[in-house]
Amino acid sequence: MITFSQTLKTLYHYAKPYKREFAFGILTLFIVDFLQILPPLVLKEFIDRASLALKGEKHFSPFLWLGVAYITIAIGQSICRYFWRMFLMRGSFKVAEKIRDDYFSKLQKLPPSFYNRNTIGDLMSLATNDTEAVRFALGPGLLVLADATFFLMSIPPTLFILSYKLAFLSLAPMLMVPFIITRIEKLIHERFEKVQNQFSKLCAFSQENLEGIRIIKAFTREWTQLNRFSKIGKEFVRLNLKLARAQAAFDPLFTLAVSLGLVSLLIFAGKDVIMGSISLGTFAAFTRYLDQLVWPMTAFGLSVTYYQRGKTSLERICQVLQEKEENKTSEGNAFSIPSQINAPFLEVRHLTFTYLGSSRPVLQNINFQIQKGSRTAIVGTIGSGKSTLIRLLAGLHETPPHMIFWEGSDFSKLPLEERRKKIAFVPQDVFLFRETLRWNILMGGPFPEMKGDVWLFELLKRSGLDKEAGRWNLDLKMGERGLTLSGGERARVTLARALAVDAPLLILDDALSSVDSHTESEILHHLSHEKLSRNQTLILITHRLSKLWDFDQILVFKEGVLIQTGMPLNLAKTPGLYRELLELQRIEDELARS
Predict the structure, then answer these.
(1) pTM as predicted
(2) Which residue, 48, 220, 426, 558, is most buried by CB atoms nearer than 10 A?
């Protein structure tokens, strides 16, 4: 939980670039509040002069000037109200925009482990609902706080100037206000935090169901999901009602405090008005000022509500902004590792890796070498650590030091920004953006090697899209997650994206599992030694062992241990897991053909 001073410091950090807007907004607000104090004094003067007129003094010109003054005050208030709304609200919207920019920028720099701990719905809630709560704290919250402060600093002294006795009688019941604010403030903070957490659950559940709507319909689970959504929604409503009850206590209690002041004024000061020791105009002005005190009392309650909401939301946002970023080089400070003569292109030495929070190693004492320009396949049983190894190479998990070496140098010392420039990675779960085909291949480019549409079509052909490339338009819009294409087409477009980078190391993490056997053979042919550009090195995770006969090396994994290494023909003749998997696959293929 962040403290009050930390909250103010963070808010000031974001509001500082727009301090001029906030300053002009507060200044015009104070002008409005100052003009708001004058009408009761004009009314007092009007009533006192009317009383004198009833006694026989016939001077009507002062009434005309009092009317002109009243109209002038009203016009001045209207003009200044427009300006404080423009300046204060504009400043708060700019602060919210800056917070969203920083938040989104931070999300781009966080490691994959962060997204394993946080749901997309929760992150969307922070970008929308929580940011709006911070904006309200700086916009309407600052407004009502400044408004209430000015009134409470100006109206009570004005009352004492008019009459000490009436001021004491009317203000005494308001001494309970600070105790009310103190008691309710903590309650609002606790309940609003629960509301925001439940809203995050609601967003996460909605996002998951929208993404998985085809699965839900395929298994006819619509009513089950609706019931679950209803339960989460009802809990959200219940928590909001609890919060509303705490917030609703402010207005009636403050109104009661002001009303008690008015009652004491009528009981104890009515006699003085009748006797003439206090003028009727002064009494009327007092009642108007007491009416005006209802708003600052309520405004203090609103400011407490806005502050507690903004503080809770700011605390949630700051938790993300304070997350440790991936180890990347700063701009203009590029880092490279020197290559050693005769060193393997890629070498893994005694690699052991355990996921955070787990006691069982996923990889244990892994050792192998990969030569430049070679093609290596990684095979094994499900859950044997193949994808974990690939993610470590790609920097999607923090690489242990002194275990992975690139051309003889410790790969963990190379910042991720530079490491990922050396690797083109195609994961199992392919993803296409809702952009054009060209954009999805180039990912926003530009690439110096790009030679226009001819070059892009060549990439599509190398990815096994020979037939499709002839009828596709590069400016064709992809659907949501590329759903206008089949699963195999999406996988091959993702492969074309990786080939466009032309990195020294190309990694395919079971990326060809969604294409048929014939298409996979064509793609692997395009990725053969003579087809790979610039002596590119290939690492392939696959379960189709029959396509690996011309690979240079096979790594066989089982339960996180590298149990076999060698060329495909040698492993096929040697008793072991690879031979068993190959025989099992042969039997399956024969059964499928029969």
Answers:
(1) 0.68
(2) 426
